[in-house]
Amino acid sequence: MQVSVENIGSLERKLTVKFPAERFETQVSARIAEMGRTVRLKGFRPGKVPTTVIKQRFGDQVRGEVLSDLIGSTLREAVQQEKLQPIANPSIDTTGKPENGEIAYTATFEIMPEFPQVDVAALEIKRPVAEVSDADIDKMLETLRQQRRSFDEVERASADGDFVMFEYSASADDYRFPAEGQERAGSVLGSGTLFKALDEALTGRKSGESFETDVLFPEDFRNEQLAGKNAKVSFSIIKVQEPKLPEIDAEFAKLFGIADGDLETFRKEVRANLERELKAALMGRLKSEVAEKLAVTHADLDVPKLMVQSEARNMAAGSVPQGQQPPPQLIEAAMPVARQRVIAGLLMGEIARKQEIRIDRKRVAEQLAAIASTYEEPEKVIELYNGDPQLMSGLQNRVMEDQVAEWVAEHATTTQLDLTFDEVMRPVSA
């Protein structure tokens, strides 16, 4: 077997491999002979099918299979011989026909870059730290009350927090919505479901009231005919309902799985859930911080184009409905951030390799238990992960990223960033 390597880019390689045609023909003959012992054809006894018949019926198929197998095996040998590390399946080009007693093919692929020495100690990392306070628990309990609230109809004028059901029509220039009659809608005032001007128009109104007023529709309103326009809107109030919040008592606690309704147990359960969410969010913030600093520090690192394109495609896919292909311009727009992510991911992998960081099985089990605990049947979720290599691999990769991020934070120039629960869970930029 002859092997030659050509550099066709910073990370692109073209591998040319030649192997004896005799090796190919020998394997073809051996496979056809094997088929002669096993193949069943009408008109022939088992094991008695003539070789000429097998060649006629299956010759092209066998030759194609043998060629594919030989390319696979010789490519593995060649890559190992040349100490190359392709990042994906190579593009193969061959005629498959012997020339001068040899069969040749080329394999084109990208390889991993040579990684620089990462000076972790020079990285300045801000590690976020936060705790769950009693006030955070109280706030969550109030949120749970709001989620379980009911509404009772009232005769008074509507106020913030009330549910208002109404019918309306809007006219701007020569346009009317709807074309005939009125559209029915409903919303909790102050909830953000409606835009502010509409909330204000519906505040202080009673059931059965009809009125007309001018409303300035926002520029980004979903109806383009009304967006940014001052329209005359006619309203008919159908009903006004005020919220009725449940008391935080034993019955309320039972709704959330506290069988005996003990409120102290309920608060402990809420605290545990918040602490689990906070822990995950803090780790996510730390990983983002480490990844950003690595990517910025090594912004000039050559990375495989294929990996960047794949990451950009995945990012773009998250911005379109499931099942739809993202448009090329969306993929292109994601390329700069995708490149940063690839740089960070490769460097974190290199750190793990050089520092011999091994996956912590205990942490994998803990994360799996945390994921499972958010479902009604945790044991089935655990069973699903244990039975699906792809799911388990994804979980293990996340745990390894956590471990690398923590190692970097421990060995970098790290300062503590004190935050509240809300600052971590609901950052202003979000």
TrEMBL record:
Subcellular localization: Cytoplasm
Reactions this protein catalyses: [protein]-peptidylproline (omega=180) = [protein]-peptidylproline (omega=0)
Top-rank EC class of the record's enzyme: isomerase
Gene Ontology CC: one annotated term: cytoplasm
InterPro entries assigned: PPIase_dom_sf, PPIase_FKBP_dom, Trig_fac, Trigger_fac_C, Trigger_fac_C_sf, Trigger_fac_ribosome-bd_bac, Trigger_fac_ribosome-bd_sf, Trigger_fact/SurA_dom_sf
Domain PPIase FKBP-type as annotated: residue spans: 156-237
Domain notes: Consists of 3 domains; the N-terminus binds the ribosome, the middle domain has PPIase activity, while the C-terminus has intrinsic chaperone activity on its own.
Family: Belongs to the FKBP-type PPIase family. Tig subfamily.
Protein's name according to its UniProt entry: Trigger factor
Species annotation: Rhodanobacter sp. IGA1.0
Encoding gene per record: tig
